Amino acid sequence: MCRGVTSLRVPVDGSALSSSIRLNNQRARIESEARGMVIMGLIEKAESILTPGGVSHHGGHESPPKGARAEAKAAKAQAELAEAETEVAKEQAAAIARAMQEDEAHRQADLEEVAEKEAEAVPWDRSGS
Fold first, then answer.
1. Which residue in 89, 110, 43 sits closest to 70, CA to CA?
2. How many Å apart are CA 9 and CA 33, to the nearest integer?
3. What is the distance between the alpha carbons of residues 34 and 20, in angstroms, rounded to a whole number?
4. Residue 17 pLDDT > 70
């Protein structure tokens, strides 16, 4: 019995599920850090506006401004998130490919079964006439 593919079964193995959970946790942490950085940046901006002469850094060797460090940290976090999303996408693509191969194998087995049954149902004239 030959039937068309109406759905695709994608098995969810532990690694894909744990990667998805890990990605969601990382996304939440990054979003939380980004909100914190924005708030700190706004506080610094307000301090610099309200303080005569702006907010001073500690003398001599100044480290990069906090805004630049925050931007660098946010960029790094976004890169990590993109990497994690890429990894999850690769795992999902592999799971889909495995499911498609399995579905194709079942389809081929169904076709062979139908062909065998049809061959058994056709009366053969072995005498050649």
1. 43
2. 37
3. 21
4. no
Q: How far apart are CA 126 and CA 86, in angstroms?
A: 61
Neighbours of 19 (CB within 10 A): 19
Residue 2 has pLDDT above 60, yes or no: no
Contact (CB, 8 A) for 26 and 84: yes
Task: State how far the Cα of 102 lies from the Cα of 120, in Å rounded to an integer.
Answer: 27
pLDDT (tens digit per residue) in 67-101: 888 888 888 888 888 888 999 999 999 999 999 99
CA–CA gap between residue 71 and residue 40 (Å, rounded): 12
**3-class secondary structure for the chain?**
CCCCCCCCCCCCCHHHHHHHHHHHHHHHHHHHHHHHHHHHHHHHHHHHHHCCCCCCCCCCCCCCCHHHHHHHHHHHHHHHHHHHHHHHHHHHHHHHHHHHHHHHHHHHHHHHHHHHHHHHHCCCCCCCC
